[in-house]
Amino acid sequence: MKTLSTKKKILRIVIVILSLTAFFLLLYFVLVWSGLWERLNSVEKLKNFILSIGIWGRITYVVLQFLQVTFIPLPSPIIIMAGSLIYGPLQAGLLSLAGILLGSTFAFFLGRTFGKRLVSFMVGQELQERWTKNLTNCKYSFFLMMLLPFFPDDILCLVAGLTNMSTTFFMVTQFITRPIGIFAVSYLTSGQIIPYHSWGLVVWGLLIILSLTLIILSTKYNKQIEDFINNKLKKTDKKN
């Protein structure tokens, strides 16, 4: 019975991997054929493409944000910036939030349902092993990583499904961190809050240095951060 069950699991994983491979290839050819692939790395070209679609622009925009979290390594900041130029920071932020939350949830359940083989196929075994090690028993570090820029959010969501992280904690993290990151990019990159000249350049420089510092610390000391927060929570529980 165990051998039969194992064979069924292997067969299911093989079918899923083959299906995803076919989907990736089809999607890639569609993007290349439509000319969208060349536009995805340019804010201006992407903006013009979405505008050319007309009433389907918003739906396409949400789908692009979904795809960049799940299947295609698209640059999310470029998509958000293009959306801000078209729809304004608020509407672009809301549309991005819809697509990214759907994509993050889908990626998490892909990892949880189909396991390491599928995640290794999608991101590579080395990255899968590294991030699984970093995130196992380190849920608060995951929260910080999702909050900070420059972390591979799509990989983190996939790998989180492989760890002992609860679905509730994952979803709460997404609903807190995603809006902060998305609206920060949406409003800050518009130049309405921090300009790209004079004093704004100094502020941008400080923000980049601060972000990089937090990224290095949260990556290097994730275990210490986890222990510190857990100890604080235990002390609070004892007092209560």
Keywords:
83% helix; 240 residues; mainly alpha
Q: Give the tally of β-strands.
A: 0
Helicity range of the residues?
over 70%
Average pLDDT level: 77
Low-confidence stretches: none
Please indicate the percent range of residues in DSSP E strands (runs of 2 or more): under 5%
- The number of domains is 1
Main sheet makeup: none
Number of helices: 12
Please give the radius of gyration in angstroms. 20 Å
Shape: flat
Q: What structural class is derived from the secondary structure elements?
A: mainly alpha
Q: What would a concise description of this structure say?
A:
The protein has 240 residues and is mainly alpha-helical.
How would you sum up this structure, described in words?
This protein is mostly helical and about 240 residues long. It has one domain. The protein has twelve helices and no strands. The chain has helices at about 1-35, 35-40, 45-55, 55-70, 75-85, 90-125, 125-135, 140-145, 155-160, 165-190, 200-220, 220-240. α6 (about 90-125) crosses α9. It is flat.
Give the arrangement of secondary structure elements.
Elements: H1 2-34, H2 36-39, H3 43-53, H4 57-70, H5 76-87, H6 89-123, H7 125-135, H8 139-147, H9 153-160, H10 167-188, H11 199-220, H12 222-239
Helix pairs in contact: 3-4, 3-5, 4-6, 5-6, 5-10, 6-7, 6-9, 6-10, 7-9, 8-10
